[in-house]
Design brief:
- By secondary structure, the protein is of the alpha+beta class.
- The chain has a domain of 138 residues.
- 41% of the residues lie in helices and 24% in strands.
- It has 5 helices and 7 strands, in the order αααββββααβββ.
- A 7-stranded antiparallel β-sheet has the order 1-2-3-4-7-6-5, covered by helices on one side.
- Helix 4 packs antiparallel against helix 5.
- It starts with a helix and ends in an 8-residue tail after the last strand.
């Protein structure tokens, strides 16, 4: 028998192999469909809710951006201080990190001209722990904004969390250079020059 004859399969073998391949393909397709269904269910059921009405209202004591003790009473004591950081305008600044390196960040960046609060902006596909931490950061930013800019400051953070970007706007006597939440990051940058809260 020649080599070609040795490689030939019977009609029964061909049918069996085809059936097996078809079954394997069906299983793979089913797995992909199941995974997509699970991912869609997770995304739909874990939309992040920033319940700002429950975060407090009414009168609050105004805080000056130069009063770090008062600021840390709202945000908590920083875990690390980097005195060789850069601000919004790439000028020398001090960064106060309030979270460990492996945790969703919450930072204060303070320089001669700017005061900036940055925090991790969670995605619906993040873990429950990451989303919970992100919401906690947003609440702290909201509370601090109210202490610095009053109710208008709280409204500013609400706008950020809803996807709005605010630039070069005066909010209750404070110049907002930039306020936005996008691509896993929220940043609220206040221009300390000519701002009443910087004194």
């Amino acid at each position: 028998m020649g080599l070609g004859g040795c490689q030939q399969k019977s009609s029964e073998q061909v049918v069996a192999d085809t059936s097996a391949n078809s079954t394997d393909t069906d299983k793979s397709v089913d797995k992909v469909k199941l995974k997509n269904t699970q991912n869609n269910a997770i995304t739909q059921s874990t939309t992040i809710n920033y319940d700002t009405p429950s975060w407090g209202g009414g009168d609050v004591k105004r805080i000056a951006l130069s009063d770090t003790d008062a600021i840390f009473s709202v945000l908590g004591k920083p875990k690390d201080i980097d005195e060789n950081s850069l601000d919004f305008d790439s000028s020398p600044a001090t960064k106060y990190r309030h979270m460990a390196n492996d945790e969703p960040y919450l930072d204060i960046v303070d320089s001669a001209n700017y005061f900036e609060i940055d925090w991790y902006y969670a995605n619906p596909n993040d873990s429950d722990s990451e989303k919970k931490t992100s919401i906690s950061h947003a609440k702290k930013a909201y509370l601090l904004a109210r202490h610095v800019m009053g109710d208008q400051g709280g409204n500013l953070v609400k706008q950020m969390l809803s996807g709005q970007t605010i630039k070069d706007k005066d909010v209750s006597g404070v110049k907002v250079a930039l306020a936005k939440c996008q691509f896993y990051s929220c940043m609220l940058v206040l221009d300390k020059r000519n701002s009443s809260s910087s004194k």
